TrEMBL record:
Keywords: Membrane, Transmembrane, Transmembrane helix. The keyword Nucleotide-binding does not apply. The lineage of its organism: Bacteria, Bacillati, Bacillota, Bacilli, Bacillales. The chain crosses the membrane at residues 20-38, 50-70, 82-102, 122-140, 147-174, 194-212, 267-289, 309-331, 377-396, 408-425. It comes from Cohnella phaseoli. This is O-antigen ligase-like membrane protein.
Protein backbone atom coordinates (compact mmCIF):
# COMPACT_ATOMS: atom_id res chain seq x y z
CA UNK A 1 0.00 0.00 0.00
CA UNK A 2 1.31 3.44 -0.90
CA UNK A 3 1.37 6.06 1.79
CA UNK A 4 -1.30 8.71 1.43
CA UNK A 5 0.73 11.97 1.18
CA UNK A 6 -1.82 13.85 3.25
CA UNK A 7 -2.18 11.44 6.19
CA UNK A 8 0.48 13.29 8.15
CA UNK A 9 -1.72 16.37 8.06
CA UNK A 10 -4.77 14.85 9.69
CA UNK A 11 -4.72 17.45 12.43
CA UNK A 12 -3.79 20.49 10.31
CA UNK A 13 -7.34 21.73 9.83
CA UNK A 14 -7.79 20.19 6.40
CA UNK A 15 -9.62 17.14 7.69
CA UNK A 16 -12.61 16.34 9.84
CA UNK A 17 -15.79 18.29 9.19
CA UNK A 18 -14.31 20.47 6.47
CA UNK A 19 -13.05 17.42 4.60
CA UNK A 20 -16.51 15.84 4.72
CA UNK A 21 -18.05 18.99 3.24
CA UNK A 22 -15.45 19.18 0.49
CA UNK A 23 -15.99 15.50 -0.28
CA UNK A 24 -19.77 15.87 -0.51
CA UNK A 25 -19.35 18.87 -2.75
CA UNK A 26 -16.97 16.93 -5.01
CA UNK A 27 -19.49 14.07 -5.31
CA UNK A 28 -22.11 16.64 -6.26
CA UNK A 29 -19.84 18.10 -8.96
CA UNK A 30 -18.92 14.66 -10.28
CA UNK A 31 -22.60 13.83 -10.66
CA UNK A 32 -23.30 17.09 -12.46
CA UNK A 33 -20.33 16.37 -14.72
CA UNK A 34 -21.86 13.14 -16.05
CA UNK A 35 -25.36 14.59 -16.39
CA UNK A 36 -25.36 15.63 -20.06
CA UNK A 37 -29.02 15.62 -21.04
CA UNK A 38 -30.37 18.22 -18.63
CA UNK A 39 -33.87 19.45 -19.56
CA UNK A 40 -32.67 23.07 -19.34
CA UNK A 41 -31.51 22.57 -22.95
CA UNK A 42 -35.13 22.98 -23.99
CA UNK A 43 -35.13 26.49 -22.52
CA UNK A 44 -31.73 28.08 -23.23
CA UNK A 45 -30.28 25.85 -25.95
CA UNK A 46 -27.36 23.45 -26.09
CA UNK A 47 -25.35 25.15 -23.37
CA UNK A 48 -28.10 24.07 -20.98
CA UNK A 49 -27.67 20.38 -21.79
CA UNK A 50 -25.26 20.21 -18.85
CA UNK A 51 -26.25 21.61 -15.44
CA UNK A 52 -22.68 22.87 -15.04
CA UNK A 53 -23.86 26.13 -16.64
CA UNK A 54 -25.85 26.82 -13.47
CA UNK A 55 -22.58 26.89 -11.52
CA UNK A 56 -21.10 29.73 -13.60
CA UNK A 57 -21.95 32.41 -10.97
CA UNK A 58 -20.41 30.22 -8.25
CA UNK A 59 -17.24 29.69 -10.29
CA UNK A 60 -16.90 33.44 -10.90
CA UNK A 61 -17.55 34.26 -7.24
CA UNK A 62 -14.91 31.73 -6.19
CA UNK A 63 -12.36 33.25 -8.57
CA UNK A 64 -13.15 36.74 -7.28
CA UNK A 65 -12.76 35.63 -3.66
CA UNK A 66 -9.41 33.94 -4.38
CA UNK A 67 -8.14 36.99 -6.22
CA UNK A 68 -9.23 39.31 -3.42
CA UNK A 69 -7.57 37.11 -0.79
CA UNK A 70 -4.26 36.33 -2.51
CA UNK A 71 -3.92 39.31 -4.89
CA UNK A 72 -2.82 36.91 -7.63
CA UNK A 73 -4.11 33.92 -9.59
CA UNK A 74 -3.79 30.75 -7.53
CA UNK A 75 -3.61 27.06 -8.51
CA UNK A 76 -2.46 27.74 -12.06
CA UNK A 77 -1.30 25.00 -14.44
CA UNK A 78 -0.14 24.59 -18.02
CA UNK A 79 -3.56 23.21 -18.91
CA UNK A 80 -5.17 26.43 -17.71
CA UNK A 81 -2.63 28.60 -19.53
CA UNK A 82 -3.21 26.72 -22.79
CA UNK A 83 -6.96 27.22 -22.44
CA UNK A 84 -6.63 30.90 -21.56
CA UNK A 85 -4.38 31.70 -24.52
CA UNK A 86 -6.68 29.80 -26.87
CA UNK A 87 -9.75 31.66 -25.54
CA UNK A 88 -8.05 35.02 -26.10
CA UNK A 89 -7.13 34.02 -29.65
CA UNK A 90 -10.66 32.76 -30.38
CA UNK A 91 -12.13 35.99 -29.06
CA UNK A 92 -9.98 38.07 -31.40
CA UNK A 93 -10.57 35.93 -34.49
CA UNK A 94 -14.29 35.72 -33.74
CA UNK A 95 -14.66 39.50 -33.55
CA UNK A 96 -12.64 39.93 -36.75
CA UNK A 97 -14.74 37.49 -38.79
CA UNK A 98 -18.07 38.72 -37.41
CA UNK A 99 -17.01 42.28 -38.30
CA UNK A 100 -16.07 41.08 -41.79
CA UNK A 101 -19.53 39.57 -42.21
CA UNK A 102 -21.15 42.77 -40.96
CA UNK A 103 -19.23 44.79 -43.54
CA UNK A 104 -20.62 42.45 -46.23
CA UNK A 105 -24.15 43.03 -44.97
CA UNK A 106 -24.58 39.65 -43.22
CA UNK A 107 -25.71 40.10 -39.63
CA UNK A 108 -27.35 36.77 -38.91
CA UNK A 109 -27.76 33.19 -40.08
CA UNK A 110 -31.36 32.08 -39.84
CA UNK A 111 -32.61 33.44 -36.53
CA UNK A 112 -29.13 33.53 -35.01
CA UNK A 113 -27.29 36.83 -34.73
CA UNK A 114 -23.64 36.21 -35.59
CA UNK A 115 -22.21 38.33 -32.76
CA UNK A 116 -24.62 36.76 -30.27
CA UNK A 117 -23.61 33.30 -31.48
CA UNK A 118 -19.91 34.16 -31.07
CA UNK A 119 -20.48 35.23 -27.47
CA UNK A 120 -22.57 32.15 -26.64
CA UNK A 121 -19.99 29.72 -28.01
CA UNK A 122 -17.15 31.55 -26.27
CA UNK A 123 -19.10 31.06 -23.04
CA UNK A 124 -18.51 27.31 -23.41
CA UNK A 125 -14.75 27.89 -23.47
CA UNK A 126 -14.77 30.24 -20.49
CA UNK A 127 -16.89 27.77 -18.53
CA UNK A 128 -14.47 24.95 -19.35
CA UNK A 129 -11.55 27.02 -18.05
CA UNK A 130 -13.42 27.91 -14.85
CA UNK A 131 -14.46 24.28 -14.41
CA UNK A 132 -10.85 23.09 -14.73
CA UNK A 133 -9.67 25.67 -12.21
CA UNK A 134 -12.47 24.81 -9.81
CA UNK A 135 -11.77 21.07 -9.95
CA UNK A 136 -8.04 21.53 -9.44
CA UNK A 137 -8.76 23.80 -6.48
CA UNK A 138 -11.12 21.21 -5.03
CA UNK A 139 -8.57 18.41 -5.50
CA UNK A 140 -6.09 20.52 -3.56
CA UNK A 141 -8.61 21.16 -0.77
CA UNK A 142 -9.19 17.45 -0.18
CA UNK A 143 -6.18 16.33 1.84
CA UNK A 144 -6.51 12.57 1.50
CA UNK A 145 -6.30 10.55 -1.70
CA UNK A 146 -8.50 7.95 0.00
CA UNK A 147 -11.23 10.54 0.35
CA UNK A 148 -10.84 11.33 -3.35
CA UNK A 149 -11.17 7.62 -4.08
CA UNK A 150 -14.35 7.38 -2.01
CA UNK A 151 -15.90 10.29 -3.94
CA UNK A 152 -15.26 8.72 -7.34
CA UNK A 153 -16.28 5.27 -6.10
CA UNK A 154 -19.64 6.59 -4.90
CA UNK A 155 -20.39 8.15 -8.29
CA UNK A 156 -19.35 5.07 -10.28
CA UNK A 157 -21.45 2.85 -8.02
CA UNK A 158 -24.42 5.10 -8.79
CA UNK A 159 -23.65 4.92 -12.53
CA UNK A 160 -23.68 1.12 -12.29
CA UNK A 161 -27.12 1.28 -10.67
CA UNK A 162 -28.33 3.66 -13.40
CA UNK A 163 -27.00 1.32 -16.09
CA UNK A 164 -28.84 -1.63 -14.57
CA UNK A 165 -32.03 0.43 -14.26
CA UNK A 166 -31.75 1.44 -17.91
CA UNK A 167 -31.42 -2.14 -19.08
CA UNK A 168 -34.48 -3.08 -17.05
CA UNK A 169 -36.67 -0.30 -18.45
CA UNK A 170 -35.50 0.33 -22.05
CA UNK A 171 -36.76 2.13 -24.16
CA UNK A 172 -38.27 4.57 -21.65
CA UNK A 173 -35.52 4.42 -19.04
CA UNK A 174 -35.33 7.37 -16.64
CA UNK A 175 -37.36 9.48 -19.07
CA UNK A 176 -38.03 12.34 -16.59
CA UNK A 177 -34.27 12.96 -16.30
CA UNK A 178 -33.76 13.43 -20.03
CA UNK A 179 -34.42 16.44 -22.23
CA UNK A 180 -36.56 14.50 -24.70
CA UNK A 181 -39.36 12.01 -24.18
CA UNK A 182 -38.69 9.83 -27.24
CA UNK A 183 -37.97 6.12 -26.65
CA UNK A 184 -34.28 5.22 -26.66
CA UNK A 185 -33.06 1.67 -27.17
CA UNK A 186 -29.45 1.85 -25.98
CA UNK A 187 -27.60 2.41 -22.71
CA UNK A 188 -26.79 6.10 -22.43
CA UNK A 189 -26.56 6.72 -18.65
CA UNK A 190 -27.43 10.41 -18.09
CA UNK A 191 -26.36 11.59 -21.56
CA UNK A 192 -28.37 12.25 -24.70
CA UNK A 193 -27.07 9.25 -26.67
CA UNK A 194 -24.92 6.15 -26.25
CA UNK A 195 -22.02 7.48 -28.33
CA UNK A 196 -21.23 10.06 -25.62
CA UNK A 197 -21.04 7.71 -22.63
CA UNK A 198 -17.75 5.93 -23.34
CA UNK A 199 -15.49 8.73 -22.11
CA UNK A 200 -17.45 8.89 -18.83
CA UNK A 201 -16.95 5.18 -18.17
CA UNK A 202 -13.25 5.23 -19.08
CA UNK A 203 -12.37 8.43 -17.20
CA UNK A 204 -14.09 7.55 -13.94
CA UNK A 205 -12.87 3.94 -14.04
CA UNK A 206 -9.27 5.01 -14.70
CA UNK A 207 -9.27 7.52 -11.84
CA UNK A 208 -10.62 4.90 -9.41
CA UNK A 209 -7.95 2.38 -10.45
CA UNK A 210 -5.24 5.03 -10.12
CA UNK A 211 -6.40 6.05 -6.62
CA UNK A 212 -6.67 2.40 -5.56
CA UNK A 213 -2.90 2.50 -4.93
CA UNK A 214 -3.67 4.20 -1.62
CA UNK A 215 -5.85 1.30 -0.40
CA UNK A 216 -4.78 -1.74 1.57
CA UNK A 217 -4.25 -5.09 -0.17
CA UNK A 218 -7.74 -6.66 0.12
CA UNK A 219 -9.50 -3.33 -0.47
CA UNK A 220 -7.34 -2.69 -3.54
CA UNK A 221 -8.18 -6.11 -4.98
CA UNK A 222 -11.91 -5.55 -4.40
CA UNK A 223 -11.61 -2.11 -6.03
CA UNK A 224 -9.99 -3.58 -9.13
CA UNK A 225 -12.68 -6.25 -9.31
CA UNK A 226 -15.44 -3.65 -9.01
CA UNK A 227 -14.00 -1.45 -11.76
CA UNK A 228 -13.39 -4.43 -14.04
CA UNK A 229 -16.97 -5.57 -13.54
CA UNK A 230 -18.34 -2.10 -14.19
CA UNK A 231 -16.26 -1.62 -17.35
CA UNK A 232 -17.04 -5.06 -18.76
CA UNK A 233 -20.72 -4.60 -17.95
CA UNK A 234 -20.75 -1.44 -20.02
CA UNK A 235 -18.59 -2.97 -22.76
CA UNK A 236 -21.05 -5.81 -23.35
CA UNK A 237 -24.24 -3.71 -23.22
CA UNK A 238 -23.20 -0.56 -25.07
CA UNK A 239 -24.50 -0.08 -28.58
CA UNK A 240 -21.88 2.54 -29.45
CA UNK A 241 -19.72 1.39 -32.35
CA UNK A 242 -17.57 4.51 -31.95
CA UNK A 243 -16.68 3.44 -28.40
CA UNK A 244 -15.67 -0.04 -29.55
CA UNK A 245 -13.57 1.33 -32.41
CA UNK A 246 -11.73 3.71 -30.07
CA UNK A 247 -11.14 0.86 -27.60
CA UNK A 248 -9.50 -1.16 -30.38
CA UNK A 249 -7.31 1.77 -31.45
CA UNK A 250 -6.34 2.36 -27.82
CA UNK A 251 -5.29 -1.27 -27.46
CA UNK A 252 -3.11 -0.98 -30.57
CA UNK A 253 -1.39 2.19 -29.32
CA UNK A 254 -0.93 0.72 -25.84
CA UNK A 255 0.66 -2.41 -27.29
CA UNK A 256 3.12 -0.24 -29.22
CA UNK A 257 3.93 1.74 -26.07
CA UNK A 258 4.79 -1.33 -24.02
CA UNK A 259 6.84 -3.25 -26.60
CA UNK A 260 9.98 -2.81 -24.49
CA UNK A 261 10.34 -6.23 -22.84
CA UNK A 262 13.25 -5.19 -20.62
CA UNK A 263 10.65 -4.47 -17.96
CA UNK A 264 8.57 -7.39 -16.72
CA UNK A 265 5.58 -5.09 -16.25
CA UNK A 266 5.63 -4.15 -19.93
CA UNK A 267 5.53 -7.82 -20.93
CA UNK A 268 2.52 -8.44 -18.70
CA UNK A 269 0.75 -5.34 -20.02
CA UNK A 270 1.41 -6.42 -23.59
CA UNK A 271 -0.12 -9.83 -22.86
CA UNK A 272 -3.15 -8.11 -21.34
CA UNK A 273 -3.50 -5.87 -24.40
CA UNK A 274 -3.20 -8.85 -26.74
CA UNK A 275 -5.90 -10.64 -24.79
CA UNK A 276 -8.14 -7.59 -24.96
CA UNK A 277 -7.65 -7.38 -28.72
CA UNK A 278 -8.54 -11.06 -29.10
CA UNK A 279 -11.69 -10.47 -27.05
CA UNK A 280 -12.61 -7.53 -29.25
CA UNK A 281 -12.06 -9.38 -32.52
CA UNK A 282 -13.95 -12.50 -31.45
CA UNK A 283 -16.90 -10.85 -29.71
CA UNK A 284 -17.37 -7.36 -31.12
CA UNK A 285 -15.88 -7.00 -34.61
CA UNK A 286 -18.79 -8.65 -36.44
CA UNK A 287 -21.32 -6.49 -34.62
CA UNK A 288 -19.36 -3.30 -35.29
CA UNK A 289 -18.98 -4.04 -38.99
CA UNK A 290 -22.64 -4.96 -39.27
CA UNK A 291 -23.67 -1.78 -37.50
CA UNK A 292 -21.47 0.35 -39.77
CA UNK A 293 -22.91 -1.33 -42.86
CA UNK A 294 -26.46 -0.82 -41.61
CA UNK A 295 -25.74 2.82 -40.81
CA UNK A 296 -24.34 3.45 -44.30
CA UNK A 297 -27.28 1.77 -46.01
CA UNK A 298 -30.18 3.02 -43.90
CA UNK A 299 -29.23 6.02 -41.79
CA UNK A 300 -27.54 9.42 -42.03
CA UNK A 301 -25.16 9.62 -39.05
CA UNK A 302 -22.01 8.47 -40.87
CA UNK A 303 -22.70 10.82 -43.78
CA UNK A 304 -23.38 13.72 -41.43
CA UNK A 305 -20.19 13.14 -39.39
CA UNK A 306 -17.99 12.82 -42.47
CA UNK A 307 -19.71 15.72 -44.22
CA UNK A 308 -19.28 18.14 -41.32
CA UNK A 309 -15.61 17.19 -41.01
CA UNK A 310 -15.13 17.88 -44.71
CA UNK A 311 -16.81 21.26 -44.24
CA UNK A 312 -14.39 22.05 -41.40
CA UNK A 313 -11.39 21.03 -43.52
CA UNK A 314 -12.59 23.10 -46.49
CA UNK A 315 -13.09 26.09 -44.21
CA UNK A 316 -9.59 25.86 -42.73
CA UNK A 317 -8.06 25.31 -46.18
CA UNK A 318 -9.49 28.68 -47.24
CA UNK A 319 -9.14 30.37 -43.82
CA UNK A 320 -6.09 28.87 -42.06
CA UNK A 321 -6.47 31.17 -39.04
CA UNK A 322 -9.96 29.83 -38.40
CA UNK A 323 -13.26 31.67 -38.69
CA UNK A 324 -14.17 32.13 -35.03
CA UNK A 325 -17.20 31.09 -33.03
CA UNK A 326 -19.85 33.20 -34.75
CA UNK A 327 -19.16 33.46 -38.48
CA UNK A 328 -18.57 29.69 -38.79
CA UNK A 329 -22.32 29.32 -39.41
CA UNK A 330 -21.91 31.05 -42.76
CA UNK A 331 -19.24 28.60 -43.89
CA UNK A 332 -21.38 25.56 -43.23
CA UNK A 333 -23.81 26.92 -45.78
CA UNK A 334 -20.99 27.83 -48.16
CA UNK A 335 -19.21 24.46 -48.26
CA UNK A 336 -22.02 21.95 -47.70
CA UNK A 337 -22.58 21.23 -51.41
CA UNK A 338 -18.88 20.60 -51.99
CA UNK A 339 -18.76 18.21 -49.01
CA UNK A 340 -21.71 16.23 -50.35
CA UNK A 341 -20.02 15.98 -53.74
CA UNK A 342 -16.79 14.62 -52.24
CA UNK A 343 -18.73 12.09 -50.15
CA UNK A 344 -20.79 10.96 -53.13
CA UNK A 345 -17.64 10.18 -55.11
CA UNK A 346 -16.00 8.48 -52.13
CA UNK A 347 -18.92 6.18 -51.32
CA UNK A 348 -19.46 5.33 -54.98
CA UNK A 349 -15.80 4.51 -55.61
CA UNK A 350 -15.34 2.64 -52.30
CA UNK A 351 -18.68 0.92 -51.62
CA UNK A 352 -20.49 1.21 -54.95
CA UNK A 353 -23.24 3.30 -53.36
CA UNK A 354 -24.77 5.45 -56.09
CA UNK A 355 -26.77 7.82 -53.90
CA UNK A 356 -26.03 8.81 -50.32
CA UNK A 357 -28.57 9.98 -47.76
CA UNK A 358 -27.40 13.52 -47.03
CA UNK A 359 -30.77 14.80 -45.86
CA UNK A 360 -29.57 15.68 -42.34
CA UNK A 361 -26.54 17.50 -43.74
CA UNK A 362 -28.67 19.50 -46.19
CA UNK A 363 -30.76 20.76 -43.29
CA UNK A 364 -27.79 22.85 -42.20
CA UNK A 365 -28.54 25.15 -45.13
CA UNK A 366 -31.98 25.94 -43.74
CA UNK A 367 -31.54 26.10 -39.96
CA UNK A 368 -29.32 27.58 -37.28
CA UNK A 369 -30.14 24.87 -34.72
CA UNK A 370 -27.38 22.46 -33.68
CA UNK A 371 -25.15 23.47 -36.58
CA UNK A 372 -21.71 22.10 -35.84
CA UNK A 373 -19.03 19.59 -36.73
CA UNK A 374 -19.71 16.09 -35.36
CA UNK A 375 -16.17 15.96 -34.01
CA UNK A 376 -14.82 18.01 -31.13
CA UNK A 377 -11.32 18.23 -32.60
CA UNK A 378 -12.41 19.39 -36.05
CA UNK A 379 -15.02 21.78 -34.64
CA UNK A 380 -12.34 23.57 -32.63
CA UNK A 381 -10.01 23.51 -35.64
CA UNK A 382 -12.77 25.19 -37.66
CA UNK A 383 -13.01 27.83 -34.93
CA UNK A 384 -9.29 28.44 -34.45
CA UNK A 385 -7.50 27.08 -37.52
CA UNK A 386 -3.76 26.49 -37.13
CA UNK A 387 -3.86 27.89 -33.59
CA UNK A 388 -6.29 25.12 -32.61
CA UNK A 389 -3.94 22.48 -34.01
CA UNK A 390 -1.09 23.98 -31.96
CA UNK A 391 -3.35 24.05 -28.89
CA UNK A 392 -4.21 20.36 -29.19
CA UNK A 393 -0.59 19.43 -29.88
CA UNK A 394 0.68 21.28 -26.81
CA UNK A 395 -2.14 19.90 -24.68
CA UNK A 396 -1.57 16.30 -25.78
CA UNK A 397 2.22 16.53 -25.47
CA UNK A 398 1.99 17.94 -21.95
CA UNK A 399 -0.53 15.37 -20.72
CA UNK A 400 1.19 12.40 -22.39
CA UNK A 401 4.45 13.48 -20.81
CA UNK A 402 2.81 13.48 -17.38
CA UNK A 403 0.94 10.18 -17.83
CA UNK A 404 3.55 8.14 -19.74
CA UNK A 405 4.80 6.27 -16.66
CA UNK A 406 1.32 5.24 -15.49
CA UNK A 407 -0.03 1.95 -16.81
CA UNK A 408 -3.61 3.16 -16.20
CA UNK A 409 -3.57 6.90 -16.90
CA UNK A 410 -1.65 6.52 -20.18
CA UNK A 411 -4.08 4.15 -21.99
CA UNK A 412 -7.05 6.05 -20.60
CA UNK A 413 -5.56 9.29 -21.92
CA UNK A 414 -4.98 7.70 -25.33
CA UNK A 415 -8.64 6.66 -25.37
CA UNK A 416 -9.79 10.17 -24.47
CA UNK A 417 -7.54 11.85 -27.05
CA UNK A 418 -8.78 9.52 -29.79
CA UNK A 419 -12.36 10.17 -28.68
CA UNK A 420 -11.91 13.86 -29.51
CA UNK A 421 -12.37 12.81 -33.14
CA UNK A 422 -15.85 11.46 -32.39
CA UNK A 423 -17.44 13.51 -29.59
CA UNK A 424 -18.17 17.18 -29.07
CA UNK A 425 -16.04 18.86 -26.43
CA UNK A 426 -18.18 21.75 -25.24
CA UNK A 427 -20.16 19.89 -22.54
CA UNK A 428 -17.96 16.81 -22.15
CA UNK A 429 -16.72 18.00 -18.79
CA UNK A 430 -15.44 14.54 -17.80
CA UNK A 431 -12.72 14.99 -20.43
CA UNK A 432 -11.58 18.23 -18.82
CA UNK A 433 -11.96 16.61 -15.40
CA UNK A 434 -9.53 13.91 -16.52
CA UNK A 435 -7.05 16.43 -17.88
CA UNK A 436 -7.25 18.38 -14.62
CA UNK A 437 -6.80 15.19 -12.57
CA UNK A 438 -3.70 14.14 -14.53
CA UNK A 439 -2.16 17.57 -13.96
CA UNK A 440 -2.99 17.42 -10.26
CA UNK A 441 -2.07 13.78 -9.59
CA UNK A 442 1.25 13.77 -11.42
CA UNK A 443 2.29 17.06 -9.80
CA UNK A 444 1.48 15.75 -6.32
CA UNK A 445 3.30 12.50 -7.10
CA UNK A 446 6.40 14.44 -8.10
CA UNK A 447 6.21 16.46 -4.90
CA UNK A 448 5.92 13.37 -2.67
Amino acid sequence: MRKDPAMSGVMDGKTGGNQLLWALYLVFLLLLTVYQDFPLVNVIGEIGRSPIILLLPLFVACEAALLAKHKRVMHGSKLQRYLLVFIVYLSLISVAYVLAQFLQGSYSFGQENLLGKAVKVLTYFVLILLYVRHMQLLFAKIASRRVLYACFFAVVALLAVIMAAELASIPNALAPLHAGSQPYWRVRLLTSESSTTGTIVVVYSAIIVYLSRYLSGPAKALSFAFVAGFFLFYLFVTGSKGFLIVVLLTIVVTMAKFLDFRKKRNFLLLLAAAGAMYLFVTHFSAGVLGSLSNDIENYTSSYTRMGTILIALATVAHHPLGVGTGAYLMYFNQYVDGAIGVMSRFYYDTFGIGQINAGELLQYSDTDRNVGVKSGFFQWVMFGGIAAVVFFYQLAANLLGKAKTSSILFPALIFVLLSLLFVALEIKYEIWLFFAFISYATTRRAET
